[in-house]
From TrEMBL:
GO molecular function: 2',3'-cyclic-nucleotide 2'-phosphodiesterase activity; 3'-nucleotidase activity; 5'-nucleotidase activity
Pfam annotation, one family: 5_nucleotid_C
Species of the source: Fructobacillus tropaeoli
PANTHER family: 2',3'-CYCLIC-NUCLEOTIDE 2'-PHOSPHODIESTERASE_3'-NUCLEOTIDASE (PTHR11575:SF6), 5'-NUCLEOTIDASE-RELATED (PTHR11575)
Family statement: Belongs to the 5'-nucleotidase family.
Keyword Hydrolase belongs to the record: yes
KW Nucleotide-binding (keyword) present: yes
Enzyme class: hydrolase
PROSITE patterns recorded: 5_NUCLEOTIDASE_2
Limits of the Calcineurin-like phosphoesterase domain: 4-236
Protein name: 5'-nucleotidase family (UshA)
Domain of life from the UniProt record: Bacteria
Length: 508
């Protein structure tokens, strides 16, 4: 029997070369160009094998380069197709962030892409894949392998409704089970490429995150007839054989390549780090002219904010607030007229601002194309939302620390908000659900029955990361993405001075 090798990347997020766009820092330990080299090397030593190469989603969004293409140079969107062809992907999958720029843009990027697999996101009218096809069969020397492509069905919980208009997000587990039943008599092996991850530990089966329908990898593995599973979305680096079925999840930004081997003998799975690989020269040549334009755009100064907006202690900033997060909240409140605002320090790479702020600083701090939504919450709901935020912290050995719930299976710092317009006391020594007290708004005690307008980004407004929020509570929405709002605010207020916020009183 011919041996089968499945190579994959996932969640490249527009990082095509080893540049994270921050200055003066420059991270060179990742990038599609390095992954392409590893893939090419693996193909060269696989002469007796059927090799299938998979790009597992979240390819066209996530970096200043992708934002520039969407906002400033949409005619360059064919770059994604040219890069995919250069790497030699046989299969491409839709990621959840593929929808961030809207359905029209997505369909433009993937127009007539014969490698795109999409079995579970359907057009409401036709009940067929709105783009792409459900599966593809590969053959070598009489061996037939089917690859089924599916995407997390949880996208409507995060995405703006206008970006997913007239689409149905079917359960990938049901879709795959039905396709496997049809395909099994026709093929020798079935591989599932799923832009989603695992909500259970691969060894113990214990839940490692809330058991929503966001990460259904474990359920997909349990389908009889599935021989291998390529995953993504969680940005984890995984390679295991689970009950005889190999799985991979190849990290983030092209920092790993997943390798699955199927043969008559024991199947295997591994990930290969790309940091030491040389960059593929063709990938670099394709990207470099546009990178030059992007860097000129990013280096435009937009304002001055003083000397206290650099984030040097992310934990303290999340616990006590920070002038940087206060600035973002002010931007959000001015843009919407809301009296209360909340925003997150997305990850520990966020550095805040130096005194002179450029577009680069804004784009490398606010990395998502979020827009704003104003949500009407009762006073009781505001307190409940604050209590959920307080769950980010634990109290251990007489000190506050980050709860493991927000670190595993992947860091979720983006789900902890820092609030403005509301003052409260936080006591982490108390049980969860009882940590928030003395809540005031505008100097008055919060009224449990009165509704208050709270502005958050559209991701949070839908309930992602804090279940108090929900789409049905949204009273109005903005259309301009937050990064642009920040740039506009800085240009309108070219010299800003913000002191350390004092609205959170942490009990020692």
């Amino acid at each position: 029997m011919v041996q089968i090798k499945i190579l994959s990347t996932s969640d490249v997020h527009g990082y095509f070369t080893g540049d994270d766009f921050r200055r003066p820092l420059k991270n060179t330990g990742f990038g599609l160009a390095r992954a392409a080299t590893v893939i090419e090397q693996e193909k060269k030593v696989a002469t007796e094998e059927l090799v299938i190469t998979i790009e597992n989603g979240d390819f066209i969004q996530g970096s200043p380069l992708t934002d520039y293409i969407e906002k400033q140079a949409s005619e360059e969107a064919d770059l994604y197709q040219r890069l995919a062809q250069t790497v030699g992907y046989d299969v491409r999958i839709l990621g959840n962030h593929e929808f961030n720029y809207g359905r029209t843009y997505l369909e433009k990027v993937f127009h007539d892409d014969q490698t795109l697999l999409n079995a579970n996101i359907l057009d409401k009218t036709t009940k067929r894949s709105f783009i792409g096809r459900p599966y593809q069969i590969f053959e070598k020397d009489g061996l037939k392998v089917a690859v089924i492509g599916v995407t997390t069905q949880y996208i409507p919980h995060w995405e703006k409704p206008e970006n997913i208009k007239d689409l149905l997000f079917e359960d990938p587990v049901n879709v795959v089970a039905n396709l496997v039943a049809d395909l099994r008599p026709q093929v020798d092996k079935i591989v599932v490429a799923y832009h989603g991850g695992f909500n259970r530990d691969l060894k113990s089966g214990q839940a490692i995150e809330p058991l929503t329908q966001e990460n259904q990898g474990t359920d997909l593995l349990e389908i009889e007839g599935v021989d291998a599973l390529v995953t993504g979305h969680q940005h984890r680096t995984l390679a295991e054989v689970v009950n005889g079925k190999p799985i991979t999840q190849p990290g983030y930004r092209g920092d790993h390549v997943g390798v699955i081997t199927l043969s008559d003998q024991q199947p295997s799975a591994k990930t290969m780090a790309t940091a030491t690989a040389t960059e593929n020269s063709t990938v670099v040549a394709l990207v470099q002219p546009l990178l030059n334009q992007v860097n000129q755009w990013l280096d435009q100064p937009v304002g001055h904010v003083g000397d206290n907006m650099r984030i040097t202690d992310h934990f303290s900033a999340r616990l006590h607030g920070h002038p940087f997060t206060e600035l973002i909240n002010r931007v959000q409140m001015e843009a919407t007229g809301a009296t209360i605002s909340a925003n997150a320090i997305f990850n520990d790479e966020m550095r805040g601002f130096d005194n002179t702020v450029t577009i680069r600083d804004v784009m490398t701090n606010y990395i998502y194309p979020n827009t704003l939504a104003v949500v009407a919450l009762t006073g009781a709901e505001v307190v409940s939302a604050l209590e959920q935020n307080a769950n980010y912290f634990d109290w251990q050995d007489g000190q506050p620390t980050v709860s493991s719930d927000y670190l595993y299976p992947k860091p979720a710092h983006f789900n902890e908000d820092i609030w403005s317009g509301v003052e409260y006391t936080l006591d982490l020594k108390k049980p969860r659900g009882q940590r928030i007290s003395a809540v005031t708004v505008g100097g008055q005690g919060i009224d449990p029955q009165v509704k208050y307008e709270v502005v958050v980004n559209n991701y949070r407004a839908g309930g992602a990361g804090n279940s108090v929020f929900s789409h049905d509570k949204i009273v109005r929405e903005g259309q301009t993405d937050v990064a642009q709002l920040i740039v506009d605010y800085l240009r309108q207020h070219p010299k800003i001075s913000i002191n350390q916020p004092t609205n959170v009183h942490v009990v020692n």
